[in-house]
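Technical appendix A lists one of the benchmark inputs used to test multi-chain prediction within the project. The record comprises two sequence entries:
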Amino acid sequence: MNLDQFKVAPPSVDWITLLPVILVASTGLVALLIEMFRPKQTNVAIIWTSLIGLGVAAGSLILQMGQPSGDTFAGMALRDPASLVLQLVLVGVCFFTFFFSESYLRERRIPFGEFYPLALWSTAGGMIMVSTENLLMLFIGLEVLSISLYVMAGMARQESKSEESAIKYFLLGAFASAFLLYGIALVYGATGSLHLDQIARAYALNDGLTEKLLIFGVGFMLVGLGFKAALVPFHQWAPDVYQGAPTNVTGFMAAAAKVAAIGALYRVLSGAVDLSGTWMPLLIIIAILTMTIPNLIACQQKNVKRILGYSSIANAGYILVGLLAHLQSPDKIGIETTVFFLVSYALVTIGMFALLTLNARDGKEGTELSDFYGLWNRHPLAAGLMVLFVASLIGIPITGGFFAKLGIFNDAVNAGLTLLAIVLAINSAISCYYYLGIVRAAFVAEETRPQPLGSTMPPGLRFTGIACAVGVLGISFFLTPIQAYLSGKDPNAWTNPPATASTGPSENLSSSTTNPSPDPDPDQDPALTNPGEAPPDQPPADQPPVAEPDEQSPQESSGEAAGESEGTGPAANPAPSR
Amino acid sequence: MTWYLMLGAFMFTCGAVGVIVRRNPVVVFMCIELMLNAVNLTFLTFAAYSPSLLPLGPELTQSWMSGQMMVIFVMAVAAAEVAVGLGIIMAIYRLRDEVDLDSMSAMRG
């Protein structure tokens, strides 16, 4: 064999594109080293190292936002607006999870310092997934994400439920990866390539056999990714795993794994966009089922974690509607509403699960609805935050959830998928029932517990809750810049300078609308939070997170906010105006 | 080529059926491994027999190499999965002295 054929020109490497992933993964390594040598009983050093690493990674992502799209490592890593925003969401999810994890783990008596490095690697895997068009990288990212999650789900080793959820997740997850791989194999056989770009090109010059292989291959891949994203025929594991895993892991899983899986689904489906005609009817049926069935089941549940598990499945359905609208008319409808929905969903999910950790005491956790009775008396702030998050989940105006749902509804109508839009609206109405059930539990007066639960919120938890609340309210005002950023640099419209020019004024406009923002908020918030802690969270839009933990919080809160307002790119970053 | 592909499909089906039918997690896991190996066989077959449809030229090497690279990564990932999976099964065995999947129904609804 002639060795010359191996001499392909070495790919050009742009390390900046890879920098965030490298940072997060190596922070995980450092955190593991600290864990090995740490003085016992304290994870503080690990947490601060991880938070700093995540902050730097977030910064490097934000700095990249002004740069043009492109790929590196022979197309293995990709930089475009969607991938940057989704990576930022993943980093943010990990960041907030760490903030409330420590107090929870201590209360649950889970002596598992490895949680932090595992979560970091899991995040790195998710970041790889959302920023590649290569099926090999997609698979590796998926496995890095999943294998860490299997371990984290079984973290409470003394607890039967946790182990049970771990093995269910593991077996079904591995099963799903096998399907995904078989799909990749068939697609590879049909086209001779693992790169979605080249696959689309090969499809253009197809013959009969190729087409059949491709269709089956994409079908298998949809099964595999559907498992990960918990779409309906493949959702059986989700409620059990969500209920059994420790709450902080559940929150991380619900937010990060879903964002990553949807991101991968988007890449695969839009890579195979010519094929989607074949699978479209089936995908529409899946979307309808995914929205409807979990909503109906959730109405009968008594465990809040389980309810949120079903709700996250339903949310996957809403997101799928947005994706389908994009696929139906890719020129007219961009991906930006879907990404916006993911941002708002991730914020709400993390905030909600953070609040659930409040009831953990003495190695037990209370996540039944009845455990939340009297929450209003114990923790007015927590109850108020819960109302806000539920409002966003339902989709009540001025929360991020409202604009997200509205955008997807709009897209579906514009793409001619009116049926999906109607089902989405009906399901939003159904979901009110169980969401309001959670709120009702918080406002039931009497406590059923014999021993009173503690009345203090750990500072990390409080910070997470407030920051997520600020995010949920805040992204409403950044809706326009986010969408302008995401759509402005679409591959369809290569006009870069006009896009930034148009985001500039709109950012100014939105920051000027941020000023009146405390005005609409008090209508909703202090009315609920006044009796307890009126002074600290009176202007719920801006100040609180700065006051809470020491030095990291301003950076991240501005990072988060600037991250949402990334339309301005580097210009806004050095001087966040808040 | 057809025979290799059919063997791959057969192994994959056996594995999938086994996952659904069997109740012992170790056996289920072995069935998943069978599926992964079926995938590997399929990849290798395609890499060896079907050149790319695209007019690739020098990139043709990459085309068949990427299939073989994929196989190596699948094997590595499968090994990692074995380590984690057996760990979880051991933890469960220590906790309740049996690992039957049907008995794992603490959560319902």
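The mean pLDDT of chain B is 85. Chain B has one domain: 2-102. Comparable benchmark entries are summarised in Table A2.
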